[in-house]
Amino acid sequence: MTIERHETDVLILGAGGAGLFAALHALQADPDLRVTIAVKGLLGKCGCTRMVQGGYNAAVLPGDSIERHFMDTINGGRWLPNQDMAWRLCTTAPERIRELENEVGCFFDRQPDGTLHGKAFAGQTFDRTIHKGDLTGIEIVNRLMEQVLARPVVRLEEHRAIALIPAEDGSGIAGCLLIDVRRGIFRLVRTKAILLATGGGPTMYRYHTPSGDKSMDGLAMALDAGLGLRDMEMVQFHPTGLLAGEDTRMTGTVLEEGLRGAGGHLLNGAEHRFMFDYDERGERATRDIVSRAIYAEMSSGKTTPNGGVYIRMSHLGPADVAKRFKGMVKRCADCGFDLAGGLVEVVPTAHYLMGGVVCDAATRTAMPGLFVAGEDAGGAHGANRLGGNGVANSTVFGGIAGDTMAAYVKGMNRAAPELDERTVEAAMNAALAPFERPAGDLNGLRERLMTLMWDDVGVLRDAEGLGRGIAGLEALRVDLMATGLADTGRDFNLTWHDWLNLKSLIDVSEVIAHASLAHEGSRGAHFRTDHPDEGDLTTTRFTVARRSDQAIDIALEPVDFSIIRPGQSLIDDPELLPAAE
Amino acid sequence: MGSIDSGSQPAANGKLEIKIWRGRAKDGAFSAYQVPEQAHQTVLDVVTYVQRRIDATLAYRFACRVGMCGSCAMTVNGVPRWTCRTDVKTVARKGRLVIEPLRNLPVVKDLVTDMAPFFDKWQAAEGRLQATSDREAEVATIDPASPERKAADAGVECINCAVCYSACDVVTWNPDYLGPAALNRAWTLQNDERDGGKAERLRAVTSDGGCQNCHSHQSCTEHCPVGLSPTASIAGLKRMATRAAFGRGPR
């Protein structure tokens, strides 16, 4: 198959909030830098930043403070976050909001007096979530996209990265191998620095919220390159995803949190309002508790026709519901559901991966020249992510990555290293291998993966189920490797990419399962029914997964309480404040 | 290619009769498929079913699957639509669907178009903020109820799906026409008090391919899936151009 070569100084993989900000910052730092963005879909039109409904947490409003935002983030993350990253997130978010407004062109909602409006979001002690209605992500990504399109950035759209290529001399990263999806050829990019910003996105679960293009390619490549992945058992589930039946793409997409907050009821298949059986706050309990309660109802068979539960809003007055939740009601109506007046089936749905590549607050990884930001990076959120901290995380660290990479390239002061051609060769062979084998039931394998992850590595976990899940994943890998594709042309061959997606998803699913088994306790998003206790916060350890040969090794490393220890608070103990950078 | 929808009618035998345009660039033809009808089913679900279960070679584009990314627009029974949010029942005629790529854009393969011209025109219309402030300054205090802000807000939630661009006959007649989405974005910026590029942008949108080409057929407004009115935005630009011609400058 054809291979075309391309040279650049900085290669950005992904064009969500992290990738687009990295491009802008890298060029601001050094306008002569050659910057290339490669993205699996169209620039600004795929990935999850665009799908952000809630908003952006930043301590910019009077009465709030960075210390308060930081404490909410640490408490929300159940003391598992990398504190330096969480601190950098909270200190930089206000600057990023001003940058988005004043330089990029976003316009966030105002109060009547013309100042920014902050909305309330669960788990926070201040109404600090800056937003644009309930479509904040579209505003952020559209404006970023416009600015990037106007700059001298080389765009490799509909290019899927398949392997990080190390330097021949072992000095660090040297490039990346991609498939040009439209043309069906390989493209090999030699570069001095790479940003991994493809976005995690736990789409290996039967019910999931992320954009359909996502398949954990970034983490699968990092694993192949020998990097450590932390907190991989931390998969956040949103309690109310739409359930529309088999073979429907909209299944799993989020019905917003506010429906429960406003007084919506959750009913099981027998139309019994069950949440008070689990928590005295009923439907207003936190995301994790509601998700576990629904999952438990589902596991005991008390389900609706499609296997979920119902959400009911009609008792609040259909006309009022239609007015207050206009977007959600319209979305449901477009798919044939009456949210305002009827019952709509919902399920918990895999929403966000807190885990990711081990890195520092400057986005550096263990491999020189390789940087990571956004959902591909691990550490900022610990065991749970606050609503509104996702887009803050991707834009804050994307910008930092742009700054860091520009400085790195400048300091390098030589050409990009030679590529390790053996890795290139092996990655090309692996990507083409399915064309050598008889076509099989790829969709059946995908269904098996999604069911397995949902049943055995899902909202509630135990050692027995996880063991079953790990065995099932091994069998799936064997079956995928035996399943091929009809070779009918490789240009825009979606089924080839489905195969590659499945490969990435199985690779990362194995890590999630192994990390879940190794973490014998329950913390944040990770719940083990055989180890329900949270454990001692002061001796908190986090999982780090690596692949050696074909096995996944999990190490448990102690959290470095570099700023505060459990029991302390930056709000009560201001002397603990980190020195300014 | 006018509107030939005629409301909802069920399939005869529980099977939808689907015709999909297949091919590369201009060289193609329709292929027929049968897809089981389901209680809840979007046009994107139908296309996905064909690729996953009937013909693995079908190419199409989608991403968010929930009406936010604007990647999956196609021509459905003659009408440009966002397929992830279009219930089959509301558009099928006797269980029949004809699915084609968006018109007015080059076809890459099957249902996939090259959206580059659409985004090139977005840029040609100066569709981005020219900053007058920076990250060191506070966020501007802006009255959300001012007429300018309300005009900007009315047009700003575009998802750049290119449905309007595909629906517009003027784009078909004049490939240089900037089109509804790009002009709509320009209008929102002309009403953004933070922007410093208004004179330059007004020149861009009143050039040969600019707002004066619009015949106010309103196809863009009729088909916009998120309920925007590019027609109104373009009319605003025309008024602004007229004012400028009489020396009163953009406002």
What features would you describe in this structure?
The complex is a heterodimer of chains A (581) and B (251). Helix content of chain A is 34%, strand content 17%. Chain A is α/β, with parallel strands linked by helices and 581 residues long. Chain A has a domain at 238-350: Alpha-Beta Complex (Flavocytochrome C3, Chain A, domain 1). In chain A, strands 7-3-2-11-18 form a 5-stranded parallel β-sheet, covered by helices on one side. A 4-stranded mixed β-sheet of chain A has the order 1-10-9-8. Chain A is globular and about 65 Å long. The mean pLDDT of chain A is 96. By secondary structure, chain B is α+β, with helices and mostly antiparallel strands. Chain B folds into 2 domains: 15-113, Beta-grasp domain (Ubiquitin-like (UB roll)); 116-245, Alpha-helical ferredoxin (Fumarate Reductase Iron-sulfur Protein, Chain B, domain 2, Orthogonal Bundle). Chain B has helices at residues 43-54, 88-91, 116-124, 147-155, 163-167, 169-173, 180-190, 198-205, 219-223, 230-245, and strands at 15-24, 27-36, 73-76, 79-82, 96-100, 107-109, 112-113. In chain B, the strands form 2 sheets. A 5-stranded mixed β-sheet of chain B has the order 2-1-5-3-4. In chain B, strands 6-7 form a two-stranded antiparallel ribbon. In chain B, strand 1 (15-24) and strand 2 (27-36) form a beta hairpin. In chain B, helix 3 (116-124) packs parallel to helix 7, helix 4 packs antiparallel against helix 7 and helix 7 (180-190) runs antiparallel to helix 8 (198-205).
